[in-house]
Amino acid sequence: TRGTQCTRFSEPPPFIFVEIPAEETRFRSLTVDMRFRLELGGRLAEWRLFGLVYLGRNHFTSRFVLEDDTVWYHDGVATGAQCVRQHLSDASNDLRTVDGRNLCLLMYTRV
Known about the structure:
- By secondary structure, the protein is mostly beta strands.
- The chain has strands spanning 15-19, 35-40, 43-56, 59-65, 71-74, 84-86, 97-98, 101-110.
- The chain contains no helices and eight strands.
């Protein structure tokens, strides 16, 4: 079983990584925020989503999110060295899954 870990920061970190345990079914209804804010040390800091990692069928894939919210998908097996542009406005574009793989890591960068 996993324990809870508490970390205190004196300064807002430049990156925040959030692991989504694959075996935990309770995370299937997770809402992926494109941005979030936290108050740290009396200051409000903001982070934006810049990367997502997926796992399924013994294979990792990823999405990268640019500052204008354009999403690029990469699957080294299916797309080789190329990334495929995706649009967040597409109704079928659910950030929790891609090509039958489940989200396992969120990556945020400080704005």
